[in-house]
Each structure stands twice: as structure tokens, then as C-alpha cells.
Amino acid sequence: MKTDLLIIGAGPAGINAALTADAAGAEVILVDESLQPGGQLRQQTQLFSNLPKNKKKTRGTSLNNHLVESLNASNVKVLSNHAMVGSYLNGNIGVTDGFKTFEIHAKKYILATGAQEEGKIFPGWTLPGVMTAGAAQILINRELVLPGKNAVIVGSNDFAFEVIKQLRICGVSIKAVVEDKDQLQSEKQDLLSDLGNITFLTNSTIELASGSGEVEHVSIRTPSGIKELEADFICISNGFTPILEPFEVMNCKFTYKEILGGWLPAYNMNFQTTNSNCYLAGSAAGITTLGPILLTGEIAAWSVLEELEFISPREAHNQKKECWEELMTLENNNVFQKRTEIIADSLLQDNWNPKSYFTELQGGQIHG
Amino acid sequence: MDKSTIVCRCEEINIDEIENALKNGAQTFDDIKRLTRTGMGSCQSKVCLHPVREIIADYHNKDLQDVGISRMRIPLKPIRMGTLATESKDSNVASVFGESVEEGDENR
């Protein structure tokens, strides 16, 4: 199978990249391992603001419906229920539908394979009833299954609070929120105030989860001693980290930025990895929020379109400039700063000249 | 934490076994993998990679950013050998396996 552009991962970044490339006339194949496109957006019922200017504040699921509708109306060839299994020595990507494995040769690749949740280990974490916040969200919003009646939440980041809100609406009782740091991690006060009276245990960790064949009992080590709770469900929200395997088999180099999720592929301002045929987009390029995820998909697509000469360098320049400016406005400052550090490193290595708009964004200089 | 706590659930490896590997000279995730089978189960270290990195960082008194990741290999998903071998008319499956043979192994 041959195409101009092969995109792995049909989440918001992959779909947005596909739509951008398709609209400019490129032939696009979009591969996703799930039965339906949308990625993690499929169960994100929470409201998202801070979206690019052509999109209003909306629920993740509504935005997903909109993206999938656009995808269906486009010429993008979507291969759902197909997984990337590896790369061939000739650089092509191997894809399987579970019955056969075949090779796709594309002129360029965009890997938009997203992030995975970080687990947390404690005695008893392997018991049924322990799961990540993302898994709990899939159960309630997609599978319509209640993960438990009485929950202990581990972690207090934004995502934990969004999921707590949704669990409560489903009738789950929140017995405690356990945070090992000395203060709650979410900085969003509106999320906190929505939660009402919940027991927050800071400087605390789970000492033991126990039960016969499933979680029944949770012991929590707090500064004031051990607290015992009856709970059948432990929900871990310990942040996200970029998925690296597809990049390793495509021979991309990695770098480390804690705030972007730890190890992640190195890339330049075109979202091009150290494998020049291979671009990236979305959470794979660093953990961020939905608006920036959509924009990174767009920048990667414009870069590919420029490289394949579907658009002029001038148009590519203007489109990417617009995206980067919007990205800087929408993205958390610390996250954006670390992103530019990665790009600054790529400039040092490639002797690249940064585009003028990029140095303007950085106040006239680009520094790691 | 209790040393009997499982870290790699696929292969049922606990903290004690990982620390033993470290005492025997293991420096990297891949060292621990070879000595204990940590990360060699069905999830291929998707769950235990970072908890193990934390244990390595603690043991060797390193920053987490100085502890590398595991070598990740084809196939990226569990797949039947038969599926890997079918319908590969425009290339050959040997090239899929060629990766691990030709590039060898690098310790990070």
C-alpha cells in the first residue's frame, strides 16, 4: 500500500493533521487500533476551553463527534482496528488488522500515538478494583459500567478532579483523595470548589489495599497515623507519559523533559523527529492540553505539505506562524518553554536557522 | 514499602527481586529485565517501566532523568506469528526480525 502521508493514531492530533493534509490535496491514510476514531477524546465528557480560535468551548465528546464527521466527509482513508506493529528495514511501517500484516509505504509519516497513564505501585495494587483514572473514565462514559461504589482516589491533579466530578455524577461515593505531596496538585480552583466536602489526605500514601479477590479495604498512611477505609475501588491519577515504542522502532532519538511527561522524542519546530521522514503530533510531543494537541497536529501537517510541495514555502510559513502564535497563547507557559528548549536543542544539533517568526515568539532569541 | 510488593505484574516480579538484581550489579532497566524477566510479559513493560526506573534511581541515588528507558522492539503489539507471516508479498517478514539482529543491542 502506498500513500503520500501515513498517520498513526486517530486521536484529536492525528485527525486534525489528516484533515489539514487532505484539504490541501495530499493522499492520507490514518491508522488506529480502536474500532472507532477519536482516541481518548471519545470518553472526555468534560468541558474544554482554550481551544484554537475556530473552535468554541465544548465537551470533548462533542468536539470528537465534529472531528469524526469531518473525517467521514473527507478523502482520508481511515483504517480503524489496525495497529502499527513495527517498521521494516526499508523504512516502511508494518500494520496489522489481526489477520494479516502488510506494509505501508508513505512519503512522510506522522506518529500521533499519544500518551499513556502512569501507574503507581503499593501493596495490593494488582487486585481487581484498582485502575487508573482514564480506565475509570472509559468504564463510565464509554462502556456505561460503574467501576465501584466506594472510591479512594490517588492523586490530585486536574484530571483526577475531572474524573472525581464524573464519578460522583454516576453515584460513586468518594471516600478520600490521597496525595503524597504536601499540597493538592490541581491549580484550577473552579474544579476544587465543585467538589464540595471531600476528605483530602496530603502527605499520605496507600499502605495496603486488601480484600478477598478484589479491593475491600484500604489502609492509608497519613501524618496523623494509619487511616482505615472500606472501599471497593481505587482510582490512580498519576499523570501521563508519551508513548515511545513507535518512535524507537522508527529510529527517532529521545530527550528528557519532566514537565512534558519525562522521556519523549526529540523534534524541531516543524514537529519533525530526528528521522527526517517521521513527524509527530499531540501528546507524543509532550503532555499538554487539548487546544495545543490540535495545533501540533496542524503544524506537523503543514510541514509535511511543504516538504511534499503541496503548498508553497510562503504559505507554509504563514500557516505555521499562525499556529505557533496560537500555541504560545493557549499553552501553559512552562510547557511551552520546555517545548522550545527541545527545539533549541534540535537547532544546535542540525545547525538550523530558526524561522524569524519563531525567534519573534521567543522575544528575539531562542534559548534552551 | 513492603518488599514483597509486585512491580511487574505480568511476570510477578516484586521489589525484593529487583533490588537483588541491583545488588548483583544491574545498572539499567534492561539489566534488570535480563536478570529477572521484569518487563518481558504481555504488556512489554508498558506498566512497570517507570516504577522500575524509580527503584533504580533510588538505589543508585540518581535523578530520574539519568535513568534511561528499556530497549523497545518489534512487534509493538502482541501478534500471532502466523499473522506476522501472512500476505507479506511486497516484502518479507525477515526484515521485521532483521531489526534486532542487525542493530544488536544498546544499553541505555
From TrEMBL, chain A:
**What Gene3D superfamilies does this protein map onto?**
FAD/NAD(P)-binding domain
Identify the domain of life.
Bacteria
Q: Which keywords belong to this entry?
A: Oxidoreductase
Q: Give any Pfam family that matches.
A: Pyr_redox_2
Task: Name a GO molecular-function annotation.
Answer: oxidoreductase activity
- Domain (FAD/NAD(P)-binding) spans 4-285
PANTHER family xref list: ANAEROBIC GLYCEROL-3-PHOSPHATE DEHYDROGENASE SUBUNIT B
Tell me what this protein is called. Pyridine nucleotide-disulfide oxidoreductase
UniProtKB/TrEMBL annotation, chain B:
Q: Extract the CDD domains matched here.
A: GlpA-like_Fer2_BFD-like
Q: Please give the start and end residues of each transmembrane region.
A: none
Where on the tree of life does the source sit, at the highest rank? Bacteria
Keyword annotations for this protein?
Answer: Oxidoreductase
Which Gene3D superfamilies does this entry report, sorted A to Z? BFD-like [2Fe-2S]-binding domain
The BFD-like [2Fe-2S]-binding domain, residue ranges: 6-57
Q: Name one GO molecular function term.
A: oxidoreductase activity
Q: Does the keyword Repressor apply?
A: no
What is the name attached to this protein's record?
A: (2Fe-2S)-binding protein
Q: Which organism encodes this protein? A: Oceanobacillus indicireducens
